[in-house]
Design brief:
By secondary structure, this protein is an alpha/beta fold. It folds into three domains: 117 residues, D-Maltodextrin-Binding Protein, domain 2 (3-Layer(aba) Sandwich); 80 residues, Periplasmic binding protein-like II (D-Maltodextrin-Binding Protein, domain 2, 3-Layer(aba) Sandwich), CATH 3.40.190; 69 residues, Porphobilinogen deaminase, C-terminal domain (Double Stranded RNA Binding Domain), CATH 3.30.160. Helix content is 34%, strand content 23%. It contains ten helices and 13 strands. The strands form three sheets. Strands 2-1-3-10-4 form a five-stranded mixed beta sheet, sandwiched between helices. Strands 7-6-8-5-9 form a five-stranded mixed beta sheet, with helices on both faces. A three-stranded antiparallel beta sheet has the order 11-12-13. A hairpin with a 2-residue loop joins strand 11 and strand 12. It is globular, with a radius of gyration of 19 Å. The model has no long low-confidence stretch (mean pLDDT 95). The structure holds ligand PBG. The site of the ligand NCc1[nH]cc(CCC(=O)O)c1CC(=O)O has 9 residues, from strand 8 and helix 7. Ligand PBG binds next to strand 8 and helix 7. Keywords: Porphyrin biosynthesis, Transferase. It catalyses: 4 porphobilinogen + H2O = hydroxymethylbilane + 4 NH4(+). Its cofactor is dipyrromethane. Its EC number is 2.5.1.61.
Length: 307
């Protein structure tokens, strides 16, 4: 079988696509696999925050279109960039085992967020990261966009006292030694799907679907699915400061989620736990609790619509 993998051209995206390619070749060495690099809107617009560009799927739309146009057969994504709703005809057929899902504190001057002096400048363009920072620390944030390598270079250029990045991206690109501190997911809730790589394909491509199934990691896929339920329920996009994180331990689960105002002054948080068998649906439930408590107002202000 010949397969065309659609991927973004960033070093992290290429690492992930190459990783999937080699996993597929382990399953079937006779496969002929080609990578097709596609530039997305999120790659093109680098001078403003994703929240300002607005919309959903800034890193995936063009890639999904390539599959719908039969110019590619599968796409490899960072799950946190994939909107909760997929276009008709496409499915997420496999989610690989999760890498470290935490946010990472990276700095050349300080060892942890607690060490940052008042007014320190933290580079991040994520509303989720900024709102959690403002709520807990007396810091400022400044725009930081670009791929992982660019972001590290900007830190080294002394433009920020520290930056926050996903640990997974750093680890995959062998920058794990740049992580000064990994932020506790209980205090700094990750983005739905953070640290997980997903594979999307056309729903009617039965042969490929069967092949991709073999790469699916069941536990990761259950966790990411419930986190994505949350994202869907809050109208998930980069415009709402929110996070959701699920863990599984034996037969039980824990789920934590928040929605905040961009300045972190309003902060709604819910934790749930229970039997693993009851986990499906809990992402929607936790979102609805937050919405009922007041998150609805925040979301309406930011998205201009009710959820
Ligand atoms: N929004 C960009 C993006 N999408 C996925 C990752 C990291 C890797 C992952 O979460 O799997 C990153 C960079 C970052 O947030 O630092």
């Amino acid at each position: 079988m010949k397969l065309r993998i659609a991927t973004r051209g960033s070093q992290l995206a290429l690492w992930q696509a190459e990783h999937v390619k080699s996993r597929l070749l382990e399953v079937d060495p006779s496969l002929e696999i080609e990578l097709k690099i596609i530039k997305t809107q999120g790659d093109k617009i680098l001078d403003v925050s994703l929240a300002k560009i607005g919309g959903k799927g800034l890193f995936v739309k063009e890639i999904e279109q390539a599959m719908m146009d039969d110019e590619a057969d599968l796409a490899v994504h960072s799950m946190k960039d994939v909107p909760a709703e997929l276009p008709e005809g496409l499915i997420l057929q496999a989610i690989l085992e999760r890498e470290d899902p935490r946010d990472a504190f990276v700095s050349n001057k300080y060892k942890s967020l607690d060490e940052l002096p008042e007014g320190a400048v933290v580079g991040t363009s994520s509303l989720r990261r900024a709102s959690q920072l403002y709520r807990q620390y007396p810091v400022k944030t400044e725009l930081l966009r670009g791929n992982v390598n660019t972001r590290l270079a900007k830190l080294d250029d002394d433009k920020y006292d520290a930056i926050i990045l996903a640990a997974a991206g750093l680890i995959r690109l062998e920058f794990g030694d740049r992580i000064a501190d990994s932020l506790d997911p209980d205090k700094f809730i990750p983005s739905p799907g953070q640290g997980a790589v997903g594979i999307e394909c056309r729903e009617d491509d039965a042969e490929l679907c069967a092949l991709l199934n073999k790469l699916n990691h069941t536990e990761t896929s259950i966790r990411v699915k419930v986190e994505r339920e949350f994202n869907l329920a809050i109208g998930g996009s980069c415009q709402v400061p929110a996070g959701c994180y699920a863990t599984i331990d034996g037969d039980s689960f824990e789920l934590r989620a928040f929605v905040a105002s961009p300045d972190g002054k309003e902060y709604y948080r819910e934790d749930m736990s229970g039997d693993l068998k009851d986990l499906p649906g809990k992402g929607t439930e936790i979102a609805n609790k937050l919405i009922a408590r007041g998150a609805a107002e925040i979301i309406k202000d930011l998205l201009g619509k009710d959820v």
